[in-house]
Fold this protein.
Amino acid sequence: MENRKTSAYYENRAVQFGVVSTEWLAQAQSATVHPAPSPPLPPSHNDADKPFSVIEEFNAWRKHPDLAEAVAAIRALAAVIRSSKATTMMQLEIQLKSASDSLKRWDTTSISLTAACDLFMRYVTRTSALEYEDFNSAKSRLLERAEKFGEISFKARNIITMLSQDFIFNGCTILVHGFSRVVLQILKFAAQNNKLFRVFCTEGRPDRTGLRLSNELAKLDVPVKLVIDSAVAYTMDEVDMVFVGADGVVESGGIINMMGTYQIAMVAKSMNKPVYVAAESYKFARFYPLDQKDLAPALRPVDFGVPIPSKVEVECSARDYTPPQYLTLLFTDLGVLTPSVVSDELIQLYL
Amino acid sequence: MDPSRRGPRAVIDPIPKFRQVGFFAPPERSQSGPPDPTHSSPQISNSLSPVMIPPARHLSENLLLHAPPAASPLRADSGGGGTSFDSGDFFPAPLSPALPSSSYSSRISGDFFKGNGGKVSASSFPRGGFDLTAMKAAAAPSVVVPASELTTVSVVNDSLGIPEKEKGSRAGGPAVEVKDQPNNSKQKPKTSKAERRALQEAQRAAKAAAKAEGNKASGTAASVNAKPAKAAKPAQKIENAAVAAPEKKGGEIPPEKDRKKDAPQPRMQYDDKSRVEKAKRRAVVKQTEARNRVELFRHLPQYEHGSQLPDLEARFFHLSPVHPAVYKVGLQYLTGDISGANARCIAMLQAFQEAIKDYKVPQEKTLVRDLTAKVSSYVSYLIECRPLSISMGNAIRFLKSRIAKLPLNLSESEAKASLLSDIERFISEKIILANKVIVKHAVTKIRDGDVLLTYGSSSAVEMILLHAHELGRQFRVVVVDSRPKLRGQLLLRRLVEKGLSCSYTHINAVSYIMHEVTRVFLGASSVLSNGTVYSRVGTACIAMVAHAFRVPVIVCCEAYKFHERVQLDSICSNELGDPDVISNVLGREDVHHLDGWANIENLQLLNLIYDATPSDYVSMIVTDYGMVPPTSVPVIVREYGREQPSFLFRNFGYFCLYSPVLEKSANFRLSRKIEPCILIICNNSF
């Protein structure tokens, strides 16, 4: 059955941020000691005889722990332009289109990948100036735009970090769920600026990404408390705000994120605690789920530590959808938005 | 900036006032309206979007962190909006020196009437030609006044008439209003409707007197003076003048054309007797007004049904100012042969096409102005048959803007051809193609095993269901219906014929059936700027029950039906159906408890046609621009609703609104319940 296929996106996240073994500390250590290829170094694909594959390119980029999936996709698509042997604009556009389609098909569960591909196509190809120039200058212009887009996406995290600092006040307690690079950077920056705050990390079963985050925060001397996923409601009255990342921000203004975000947001809402989402704008997707089952299932293995009888079914979806009414604000590189503005931005981007 | 926004401001004013029905009390508004920048400025400062205010407790030790880039544009926005509002709105520069400051009421009221002067208004407001007698009288020697009368009567395009009106009415208007002022302040304490009406009569008489005096003094407008003597109904003429007078301020703003189009769509308030009288006189359809009207809905037209048709049919072959094709469509509206927003709109547009084909420009007239007047007269005829739906209103607005934008160098036949093709394109693009796109989007939300509930009969929903069935999705449909129209039966028949498995029930059972439903698909007559869905009565009930059962509610509506108005309840704007149809039960002769209800003094039957569903109960709106949350309706209205957006406010608030919306929200009704909401909206957008 095709549905049983596990999600590449979540597998990659588990590999990068998950802590599956008990020696998680060591593993995290090794991950930081061995940084994968640094951004300026593109994977070797220059040998002309080997056919260029956008997926390989993308896979090479996404191994980089600091690089978001979407940025990797953008870099891979830029490489498509660079290596293209097309002689007309139309050919190039078709090539680009097929490359982005194959990327999207390669992992349908990754919303940010899909969104980034769409956005890239919009951003790069929608320029009227292209039609009046000769092919080579047009191509170099496309490349320029692609680079710029990659850069913008890369910078997005810094912008979000700056924007969100106003919301972290001294003495506050922040609950975080899962491992989000943006949230980590926000907290890191706040800590470096001598803000005094406390962080509760959920465990983030099954890949236990929360452990990884708590490890990172402990290094920064931020007081951290690990909370098992089921203790969220128990600890919520001590919490001042909830910070989560997002795998995707959908048209309704809701987010798709790691399993458990929905229930945390619900608990927070019922206790009147603000829920802040940090997400780059390339995660905005033109997609409107009505309920949880409306998402394409993204599966991932769940390890219970003991053998599960075959008659027992296991829910192994990796993500859930949090409707907009449970979210307070979204911190994006477009600014601090209320959930309802997401759709406005999307309409302006895509129509 | 724009004086027409003074109206809304008046509403926002915190001075408490009693509930007021109808348009006819500008004095009230003037009470609260008087210029208080002191009042307004705090609001503006508060308006720094609630969204952006960071938690209060943060320490500002870090300079680097204190210029959030996103915040700055917002602040600039709100600041800019605020200041221009202050200066431009309350004291329009050219105006204040010209008029005595105490005549504020005239300016305020002018606002409201100015709104009515817009192009659309002309069409949808039978009041447009105040009295034809005046037109005859206008053959008087004076040059100035006749001009103003003429424009009011023909309502071609007020933008042209305004300057003249200004001249014409300057003589009397302000003076009259000064006189009124003390009266109005006395009126402030609670008065009954009758009392207010009496008071107004008195005011009118006063105006008449003042008018006469003023005219004598100025000497230029002798004809006005003459007319009351000549004609039998002085009161009306005076009112006419009074209406025209405030309109002068509209004329002060140069880019009139655009503003006019933004003007709110006025609605006839049918509890205003004098207006109704006037409208009646020029009506083609002779309607007898129903008795025993429900108190809360007196401002809506209600007629004895069934009385007009034979009369109209008899006159079908007579010479009438209405083109036969339009006449026919009107009759079909009247009998209910054509119903449904899309069907009515298409029928109307096709009738207009016929009319344009047969149209010839009369001598010494220009096509643009004469055709606009023609269309307006057709539209007012159609309104007499049945009040316009919002879709029709939008289509008419489109057509009129097309007529107005015709290049002058076009020959008559070219102009007609271009209009015909424009209408054709509107039908095919905005309605037919839009429906196809909606179907394409909505089908993605139907999964195997779904139970879909729909209410009444919506063409878009029908197409969606049929298409999903063609795609082989396995689902079941619950058709919910309601008396008296039972239009769901038609839908049910068509669905069953195509082999869909259906259930049929009445709205009474909706709470029972809802627990097995997985999706609710609803059609809409319109979606308003605040996400309110304006649709067949009962829709709100379905949506609320679905919400309570946590079933997603999907509203399917073409974007051409979106409207920038804001409506918070179903009372202000609605349509009343024939009360007789709810008094008897089809096929049950033995049920006749309500026979002769019209003669029972203390019984009122209410048959509402539409209701308003708050956006909270709507999960998603499927439109030709994709699937959007209800909060994004204003974005679509703003970006695509009109050919050129007038001016925009971008903000991070819940709604992105621009001033026509505010005008509208103030115009449609002044009730205390509404005020806080409007206040919120304003805060967000300035």
Remarks:
- Chain B has a mean pLDDT of 67.
- The longest helix of chain B spans residues 412-443.
